[in-house]
C-alpha cells in the first residue's frame, strides 16, 4: 500500500505535464478555446488566458509532485486540482451540455461519463498520494503505474482517433457487419433517386401534390403514381440501369375509383 | 386496383386514353414545370395546409394529432392520400404515438384533408461512431442514435453516385446524413437512405 501511494505522484505528474503542454503550446487548442465549456464559464475573450493559467497550475503541481522532497501537501494540491476538474465538468455538463471540456486538446465530443471517470480516477490517485513516502521502484509497481496511465489515456476521448477508431475500423473490416446479401430486388429508394434526377420528374414535380401513392413492378419497369391536383402523375422507371433520362411520365385525368 | 394500374401503365408506356401531357422524351416540357401555381403563404405565419405532431388517437379515417406547439389537428386520410413510413404504406400502419408531418388542404371545418402524410420521418446528420451487425451507431451532437439497416429498403448514396443497397463502404468516424423512420419512444431509427459525402 505504501509503495502504491509512493507511485501515484509520478503518474499524476506525467499526466498533468501532458495536459499542460497541450494547453500551453498547441495552436489548435487556442484557436478552438472559444468553443469549449470554459468559454461559457469565463467568457470567450478570457477563455485563452484562463486556459493558460490552468496549464501553468497543472505544470506547477506536476513539478512539486515530481521533485523531492515528498510531503503530504503535494498530494493535497493534486487532490484540490482534481476536485476543481470534477466541479468544472459538472458545471459544463449542466450549463453547456453540447460543448467539449477542453481538458486535453481539442475534440468535438461533449462532456460524458469518460471525462468524469478520468477526473474521478485522478482524484482517487491524488488522495492516495497524500500519504506518499519516497518511491522505491519494483516491477509490480511499475506495471501498476503503466496500467493507471493506460486507464487515464483510455478514458480520454481526445485520443480516440489514435486507437479506438482504427480498432473499430479494423473490426469492421474483419467482420463486415454490413455485407450485402445477394438479392435481385431493387430497393424503392434506389428507384426514387433515379426518378428525382430525371428530366421527367423535374418537369412534373411542380404539379405533384402528394408523395408516392402507389408503386408496383411489371416487366422490368417500376411504376410510381403521385397525385397531381385532380390528376394523377405516373412515372415509369426502368429497374435495370440508372440513367435518369430513361424515366417516362404521363399526366392522367384521375380515373373514377373502381 | 389492377385495372387502375393497367390504365396508368398504358398511359405512361403507350399513350393511352386520358393523357393530359406526355412526350417521347419522357418529360412534360418546360412550361409544365412552371405552369402550376404554388399556394401563397404570408411570411412569418403558419402554413394552414401543413401540420406536424404526434398521433394521439385514430377514429375512422381521422387522425387526432397534438402538434409540438400544443395545438390539436384533425387530419383526414382519404383514398388518394400518400402515407410514408420507411416507404409507401397503408393507413393501417399509422399508430398512436407516431410522429408525423402532413400536407393537404384545410377544410372550412378546420380538418386538414391530407394529400401526403409522412410518419416518423427523420433527417439527421452525424458521425458514425461504430458499425455493428446491421446497425450504425450515429453520434448526433454527442448523443448516440442507433440506426438499423433494413434489408431490401435501406440504400446508400455516395456523393453523386446512384443509390445502392450496398452500405458496406461506410466507414467508422465519417460524416453522414440519414433519412429514415424513427421508432417512437426510442433513440432508434430505421434507415431509408444514408447520404455520404464520398
Overall description:
The complex is a heterodimer of chains A (258) and B (198). Chain A has 258 residues and is of the alpha+beta class. Chain A folds into two domains: 2-160, no CATH class; 188-253. Helices cover 57% and strands 11% of the residues of chain A. Chain A has helices at residues 2-25, 27-31, 37-42, 44-66, 72-95, 113-129, 139-154, 160-175, 188-196, 199-204, and strands spanning 212-218, 221-228, 231-238, 248-253. In chain A, strands 1-2-3-4 form a four-stranded antiparallel beta sheet. In chain A, helix 1 (2-25) runs antiparallel to helix 4 (44-66), helix 1 packs across helix 6 (113-129) and helix 5 (72-95) runs antiparallel to helix 6 (113-129). The N and C termini of chain A lie far apart (86 Å). The relative contact order of chain A is 0.10. In chain B, a hairpin with a 5-residue loop joins strand 3 (62-66) and strand 4 (72-76). Chain B is mainly beta. Chain B is globular and about 50 Å long. The mean pLDDT of chain B is 87. Chain B has a five-stranded mixed beta barrel. Chain B has two domains: 50-119, Beta Barrel (OB fold (Dihydrolipoamide Acetyltransferase, E2P)); 121-196, Nucleic acid-binding proteins (OB fold (Dihydrolipoamide Acetyltransferase, E2P)), CATH 2.40.50.140. Chain B has helices spanning 2-14, 30-35; strands at 19-21, 50-59, 62-66, 72-76, 82-84, 88-89, 99-106, 112-119, 121-132, 135-140, 143-148, 155-158, 175-182, 188-196. At the A-B interface, helix 8, helix 9, helix 10, strand 1 and strand 2 of A face helix 1, strand 1, helix 2, strand 8 and strand 9 of B.
Amino acid at each position: 500500500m505504501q509503495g502504491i501511494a509512493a507511485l501515484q505522484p509520478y503518474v499524476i505528474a506525467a499526466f498533468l505535464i501532458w495536459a499542460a503542454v497541450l494547453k500551453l503550446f498547441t495552436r489548435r487548442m487556442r484557436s478552438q478555446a472559444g468553443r469549449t465549456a470554459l468559454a461559457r464559464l469565463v467568457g470567450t475573450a478570457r477563455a485563452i488566458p484562463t486556459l493558460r493559467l490552468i496549464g501553468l497550475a497543472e505544470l506547477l503541481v506536476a513539478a512539486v509532485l515530481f521533485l523531492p522532497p515528498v510531503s503530504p501537501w503535494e498530494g493535497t494540491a493534486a487532490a484540490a486540482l482534481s476536485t476543481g476538474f470534477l466541479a468544472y465538468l459538472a458545471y459544463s455538463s449542466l450549463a453547456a451540455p453540447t460543448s467539449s471540456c477542453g481538458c486535453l486538446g481539442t475534440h468535438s465530443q461533449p462532456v460524458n461519463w469518460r471525462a468524469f471517470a478520468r477526473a474521478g480516477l485522478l482524484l482517487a490517485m491524488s488522495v492516495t498520494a497524500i500519504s506518499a513516502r519516497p518511491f522505491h521502484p519494483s516491477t509490480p509497481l511499475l506495471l501498476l503505474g503503466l496500467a493507471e496511465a493506460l486507464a487515464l489515456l483510455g478514458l480520454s476521448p481526445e485520443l480516440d482517433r489514435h486507437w479506438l477508431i482504427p480498432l473499430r475500423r479494423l473490426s469492421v473490416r474483419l467482420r463486415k457487419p454490413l455485407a450485402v446479401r445477394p438479392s435481385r430486388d431493387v430497393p424503392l429508394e434506389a428507384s426514387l433517386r433515379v426518378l428525382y434526377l430525371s428530366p421527367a420528374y423535374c418537369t412534373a414535380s411542380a404539379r405533384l401534390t402528394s408523395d408516392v401513392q402507389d408503386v408496383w413492378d411489371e416487366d422490368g419497369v417500376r411504376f410510381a403514381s403521385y397525385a397531381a391536383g385532380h390528376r394523377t402523375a405516373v412515372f415509369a422507371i426502368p429497374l435495370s440501369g440508372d440513367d435518369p433520362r430513361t424515366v417516362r411520365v404521363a399526366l392522367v385525368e384521375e380515373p373514377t375509383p373502381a | 386496383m389492377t385495372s387502375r394500374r393497367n390504365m396508368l401503365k398504358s398511359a405512361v408506356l403507350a399513350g393511352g386514353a386520358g393523357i393530359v401531357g406526355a412526350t417521347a422524351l419522357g418529360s412534360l416540357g418546360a412550361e409544365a414545370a412552371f405552369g402550376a401555381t404554388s399556394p401563397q403563404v404570408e411570411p412569418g405565419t403558419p402554413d394552414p395546409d401543413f401540420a406536424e405532431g404526434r398521433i394521439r388517437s385514430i377514429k375512422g379515417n381521422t387522425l387526432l394529432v397534438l402538434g409540438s406547439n400544443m395545438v390539436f389537428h384533425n387530419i383526414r386520410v382519404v383514398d388518394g392520400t400518400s402515407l410514408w413510413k420507411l416507404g409507401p404504406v397503408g393507413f393501417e400502419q399509422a399508430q398512436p404515438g407516431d410522429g408525423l408531418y402532413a400536407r393537404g388542404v384545410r377544410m372550412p371545418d378546420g380538418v386538414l384533408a391530407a394529400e401526403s402524410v409522412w410518419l416518423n420521418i427523420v433527417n439527421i446528420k452525424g458521425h458514425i461512431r461504430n458499425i455493428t451487425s446491421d446497425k450504425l451507431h450515429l453520434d448526433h451532437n454527442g448523443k448516440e442514435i442507433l440506426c438499423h439497416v433494413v434489408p431490401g429498403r435501406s440504400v446508400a448514396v455516395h456523393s453523386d453516385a446512384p443509390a445502392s443497397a450496398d452500405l458496406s463502404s461506410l466507414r467508422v468516424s465519417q460524416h453522414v446524413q440519414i433519412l429514415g423512420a424513427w421508432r417512437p419512444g426510442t433513440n432508434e431509427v430505421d434507415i431509408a437512405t444514408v447520404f455520404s459525402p464520398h
